[in-house]
Design brief:
Elements: E1 3-8, E2 13-17, H1 21-29, E3 35-41, H2 52-67, H3 72-82, H4 86-100, H5 105-109, H6 118-130, H7 133-177, H8 180-190, H9 199-211, H10 215-233, H11 236-248, H12 252-273, H13 278-288, H14 292-306, H15 311-316, H16 323-335, H17 338-397
Antiparallel strand pairs: 1-2, 1-3
Helix pairs in contact: 2-3, 2-7, 3-4, 6-7, 7-12, 7-17, 9-17, 11-12, 12-13, 12-17, 13-14, 16-17
Length: 398
Amino acid sequence: MPSYRCLFAGGREATLEAASVPAALLQAQQTGEHVARINEEKPRLSEPRVTEQELATFYRQLGSMLEAGLPLAEGLQTIARDTTNAGLKEVCHTLYQTLSAGEPLAAGLAKFPSLFPRLYLALARAGEHAGLLPVMLSQIADYLEHLGRLGRRFSAALVYPAVVGCIVLFLLSGYWGSGIIREMSKIFNELGMGNSVPLITGVVMAIYRFALPTFSLTLITVFILMLIIRAYYRTRRGRYRLDRVKLWLPFIGQIVHRGALARFCRTLALLLDNGVNIEEALELAGEASGNAVIARAIRSAIGEVVEGAPLAASLEASGVFPAPLTEQLTSGEKSGSLIMMLNSLADFYDAQTDHYSRAFSAVVEPALIVLIGFAVGTSIIALMLPLVQAIRSLSGAD
């Protein structure tokens, strides 16, 4: 039964449970106090945990059920019954209750803003308005699957370097922290070589004396710095500046840029193909690009496009979009095949993202292997070299 928050004229507040607003008002008036205001208390919905792949499957299943003639409410009940994800069950039940109350599907989706951002709400509204909701749901599923593949390519390009980097730190910290360098230093002093060790040995021992006592402090500092950067990235200015830095990075910048362009083109094509107006479509596509620099450039171009300027020329003025993209958009606008051209560009930049990701891995993998060998080998040679010199000196003396 719904709950209602009642404010009385004297300032007292009370929570009432009733079937409707008139029933709650009647219940409040029975107290003999004058009712100043009464509002329904909407329960706060927790944000359920649903992965992008599970959302894509949800859209795919629901679209298939609608195409088969199953009512929307019944389709939601079926998915809720079959899924093992408690968060997705909650979403389906909430959407079912929304439909039972006579509200559209988009109104239910809006109750979970972290799962269904404005892009999906706009597409759901367009699909309901045009009577093409099953087709729209299938298109959203395709869109999410494309984004998932794009994200996995980018993650795969960074996972290997991160793993190998951690292995390097683990090996070096384990080797240096085992006390071998400290014991070898004592041996060198006993042999009278404390001040006459080779340069490479002196460097390694100096790094050991400096790094080991401050290793824990360094880890804590790095952790705090990461938290500060994360908090800064959540601000509008911080996200813009850090996203600009991403675009400047060698290799990584190419992957980020191509990936953002692919998301922008695919999202814009999907929105325009389903009747969303150009102003809203550009704004949503800019947000979907995942890069604040590109999103700001698109927002700057919206005014010119609304006033009648060509889309390609407006985007080209920002300097963020490469010439091949704007040239093909110009061709698409002139021939009336803009949506087809956007999809073609999205596929092209998807392929380029995959190419740069593979090239990045191909360059970084051998470089990191060489780094591991160099770091470990240098440490071993630095400790063995003084012993070799000592043995030669003793052999010469004999």
